[in-house]
Design goal:
Elements: H1 3-10, H2 12-18, H3 33-43, H4 48-64, H5 70-82, E1 97-102, H6 109-122, E2 127-132, H7 137-150, E3 153-155, H8 163-177, E4 181-186, H9 194-210, E5 217-223, H10 229-240, E6 245-249, H11 259-267, E7 271-275, E8 283-285, H12 288-296
Parallel strand pairs: 1-4, 1-5, 2-3, 2-4, 5-6, 6-7
Antiparallel strand pairs: 7-8
């Protein structure tokens, strides 16, 4: 199945919730259409400010470019919004290139880290998964399975070990082995727990000491099914660590795909990765145009 097909299927619930099929082919908006558009976007969790801006941009495009219909105007406006900032989850010449994977409990960080590791390993890059989630025994076991499946190495410690110490050992191991990529899987932590956020800050400091300039990328994983709540989580993580980009997980199980628009617009952070299922290949680099097309086609 092609990436486009998987993405379109993943967004089917959001399209159903939007319920705009009857008016998307129009080249001129009728009375009540603007309100209907905003209500549909709000229902998909785009948020009031983002919904208002997106509708205004689409209306402006319709007025300026007479050959467009509403579907095309919305796709263009959405693509512009989502591509205003871009970031790729890719090594950029550093060796090892170190990425930190963070987020609250239950968003699928460990699974996504395993998938990303599999992608790097398949390209022939020496990849290390660092199991810095030492509070949840199942997380280490889960990452162990993913490492074997991905063809990546894993560094783990006993349950309850200091996550910063595990991160330190991971940096040392990666440098000693001459590895290309290091993915540090951290424990899920509620953004409201200040002590846990302080622990994450410590992990970042230790990584920087072990590999100068690292972490080179901090990937914040958000759960698409939580809608607008993901915005609150993201803002708190931004206060604790310098987030580079966002991964949107579980797009295949939500009707709240409009929240992706609010995340991009309000957080002013790029989206680099999307998760589309449980399989090893069920993820993709974020493509703003494909996402916009999937929302409205």
């Amino acid at each position: 199945m092609s990436l486009w097909t998987r993405l379109r299927e993943s967004l089917s619930r959001t399209r159903d919730r939007l319920g705009l099929e009857a008016i998307l082919g129009r080249s001129r908006l009728e009375a009540g259409d603007l309100e209907r558009l905003e209500e549909a976007l709000l229902a998909s969790d785009a948020g009031p400010a983002t919904a208002e801006r997106l509708v205004a941009r689409a209306r402006d495009l319709l007025e300026r470019e007479k050959e467009l219909d509403l579907r095309q105007a919305l796709e263009h406006a959405t693509t512009q919004l989502l591509s205003a900032r871009a970031s790729r989850f890719e090594p950029e010449g550093q060796k090892p290139w170190v990425a930190l994977v963070v987020g609250v409990n239950g968003v699928g960080k460990t699974t996504l880290a395993g998938k990303l590791a599999a992608g790097f390993a398949a390209r022939g890059l020496g990849t290390l998964l660092v199991a810095a989630d030492t509070f949840r025994a199942a997380a280490v076991d889960q990452l162990d399975v993913w490492a074997e499946r991905a063809g990546a190495s894993i560094l783990k410690a006993r349950d309850g070990a200091d996550p910063a110490a595990v991160a330190h050992d991971g940096m040392a191991a990666a440098r000693a082995r001459g590895l290309d990529v290091v993915l540090v899987d951290t424990a899920g932590r509620l953004h409201t727990r200040r002590n846990l956020m302080a622990e994450l800050e410590k992990v970042v400091r230790v990584i920087a000491k072990g590999v100068p300039g690292a972490p080179h990328h901090t990937l914040l994983v958000l759960d698409a099914t939580t809608g607008q709540n993901a915005l609150v989580q993201a803002r708190e993580f931004q206060r604790a660590v310098p987030v580079t980009s966002i991964a949107i997980n579980k797009l295949d199980g939500t009707s709240r795909g409009g929240a992706v628009l609010a995340i991009a617009e309000e957080l002013q952070l790029p989206i680099s990765v999307i998760g589309l299922g449980e399989g090893v290949a069920d993820w993709a680099p974020f493509d703003a145009a494909a996402y916009a097309r999937g929302l409205f086609e």
